[in-house]
Amino acid sequence: MQDSKEKSIKENETDLKKDANIDADKNTNKDANIDADKDTNKEVKKHPTKIGRWIEIFAFIFLFAVLLKVISYAIDPIRLNQPEMVVARDRHIVAALAEEPNSSDVLVVGDSEAMVLVSTKILMDEAGISSYNCNQLGQRTSETYFFLSKLLEKQNPKVMILETNVITQDTTFNTEVHLTYNATMQEVFPIMRYHSNWRRKFGLEEPPEYNAYRGFEEIYVVDPYSGEEYMTATEDRYKVNPIAMYYLDEVRKLCEEKGIQIILVTSPSAINFNYSKHNTMQDYADKYGLEYIDFNLLQDEIGLDWSNDTGDAGDHINVYGTEKTTRYLMNYLNENYDLPDHREE
């Protein structure tokens, strides 16, 4: 009997040990599983999914774009009416954008050839025509379109004079793609255009005084052109870069929507122009019913003198040449358009 009890006790002890071992194994497995889960979570955190990566990338791009917009607003020279705070090529266009609304009946648009084409002072003093010379050095047609779109939000001109060198300037397709991309990005993020004025903002550089009269600068330097005749008649046509042509069409459509009359005008330039370019611009004008004035074919009529009327050997006319082109255009505007006289205002 005693032996039977001892045997039963031993069997119970054995069963208890087995149960303890099972529980220990379970706990060990649970701990192992928990540790494994923790390690797995760590791995997930260390190695996010592809979707997570793209979310992070887009979030960064979005926040960076917002930052650029905020900084652009803070230093925008147009909003602050500070044309002296930009690089030289942009001064006149920025000043034009800062003008009082509906203050110009005539806009002159284009690159540096436009800058010397029209004296806004002569137009006002001698005919009372309110005009603004919205030129930009080295302007591309994409910039012409972008800036004109902004200008027409404030101005309601009756006439726009578009100087044609911005269309016919010699370039390549790749160059135009690159410059158009830059112009587009600068339009979206103005800080990219005006970033260089941070030194002036912090007083580290003194900005130059802006004193041009409504976009026109007088150039008195005389540097004669002594080259050969450059307007020899031909049936050839100059092939305009397709990007330049695209934005020319956009400018034309924009003006048509606003009821603005376009006059295509070519400034005298022995260096930049020739008869094949004239033919191309004349074809475009005829196709869309636009007026076209080519001063390279009117040299005798306006009395242009290449020994005195150019400041850089035939590239641009100087103030003496500008007086001649301006008075011709002044008479043309008075004869063909009903423009108010602002001299008594």
Structural class: alpha/beta
Neighbour order of strands in the largest sheet: 2-1-3-4-5
Shape: globular
Question: What gyration radius follows from the Cα positions, in whole Å?
Answer: 36 Å
Provide a count of the helices.
14
- In terms of DSSP E residues, the strand content is 5-15%
- The pLDDT mean sits at 82
What is the total tally of β strands?
A: 5
Spans where pLDDT lies below 50 across 5 or more residues: none
Short recap of the structure:
This protein is of the alpha/beta class and 345 residues long. Helix content is 54%, strand content 7%.
Task: Give a written overview of the molecule.
This protein has 14 helices and five strands. The chain has helices at residues 2-46, 50-75, 91-97, 112-115, 120-127, 141-154, 165-168, 173-188, 191-194, 198-201, 242-258, 275-288, 299-302, 319-336; strands spanning 106-110, 131-135, 159-163, 261-266, 291-294. α12 (275-288) links the parallel β4 (261-266) and β5. α5 (120-127) packs across α14 (319-336), α6 packs parallel to α8 and α6 packs parallel to α11 (242-258). It is globular, with a radius of gyration of 36 Å.
Topology (SSEs and partners):
Elements: H1 2-46, H2 50-75, H3 91-97, E1 106-110, H4 112-115, H5 120-127, E2 131-135, H6 141-154, E3 159-163, H7 165-168, H8 173-188, H9 191-194, H10 198-201, H11 242-258, E4 261-266, H12 275-288, E5 291-294, H13 299-302, H14 319-336
Give descriptors for this structure.
single chain; 345 residues; alpha/beta; globular
